Task: structure prediction
Amino acid sequence: MSSRFFAQLGDSSDESSSSDSEVEAPVSRAPARQYSSILEESDEEKRVVRSSKDKRFSEINETIKAIRNHKKIKDITKVQEGFTTLCQIYAKSQNVIAKNGCPRAFIRCIADLETYIKEVILPICTVYFAFNPYLAACERI
Result:
């Protein structure tokens, strides 16, 4: 049996035209069923519209939670990545912060990171530099 595309070019027999219409009918109905199921699913879900303030502050809070979790397991690399992400989110949300003020959680997180660096990372670095005299000399410069 030839495909419906080649049937239009040459063969104009009754069998091919009737078989073409039979082939086309189910194909045209199948997407309608798919779309109807998608529409039914979207009706069940409620769309939540949030303000830009809520979106930005929730992004900041989620990043802060991730940083706290990484600090608990002492994953310094992830803490640094989280801090970089937090700074990017802060830069994106400058308009919202200018209107509503800086979130307390952000200020608290920066202060916690400062104490974390002093308490955890600096002792590690001093031990590392103590065993490597070349790095200790570079630190003094």
